[in-house]
Write a structure and sequence with these properties.
This protein is α+β, with helices and mostly antiparallel strands. It is 18% helix and 16% strand.
C-alpha cells in the first residue's frame, strides 16, 4: 500500500480533512439518516441529497425517488427517520423544461 511506504520514506501523510498547519480538524459528522434532502433553492431545479454511503448528489424531482430506491430499495419515503427533509418537505424548486 502506498501510504505506509510514503510514511516509511519520511513523507508526512494526512487525511484530506487535515489542516495544513498541523492542527487536525474534525471530520464533519455524517447525518444520522439514510437520506437527507438539503435546503430548498429557487435558482435551480435541483436539491442536494445525501445518501448514506454515497455522499451528496444534486437530484431533480423526477430522478429523486429512482436514485434513492436504487441505493435503498426498501426505504419508506414517509418515515422521517429514513428520509429527512431539511426544509419544505416534498417541495422542489420551480423549473420548467427549456429553462437554463
Amino acid at each position: 500500500m502506498l501510504v505506509p511506504r510514503l510514511a516509511a520514506a519520511g513523507v508526512r501523510t494526512r487525511p484530506f480533512w487535515a489542516h495544513p498547519g498541523g492542527m487536525e480538524k474534525k471530520r464533519p459528522p455524517e447525518p444520522e439518516y439514510p437520506v437527507v434532502v438539503g435546503s430548498f433553492g429557487e435558482n435551480h431545479r435541483y436539491r442536494l441529497v445525501w445518501l448514506r454511503g454515497h455522499g451528496w448528489e444534486p437530484l431533480e424531482k423526477e430522478e429523486f425517488e429512482l436514485r434513492v430506491r436504487e441505493v435503498f430499495p426498501d426505504i419508506d419515503f414517509d418515515d422521517p427517520e429514513q428520509v429527512h427533509w431539511v426544509d419544505k418537505p416534498e417541495e422542489w424548486p420551480a423549473w420548467h423544461p427549456g429553462e437554463a
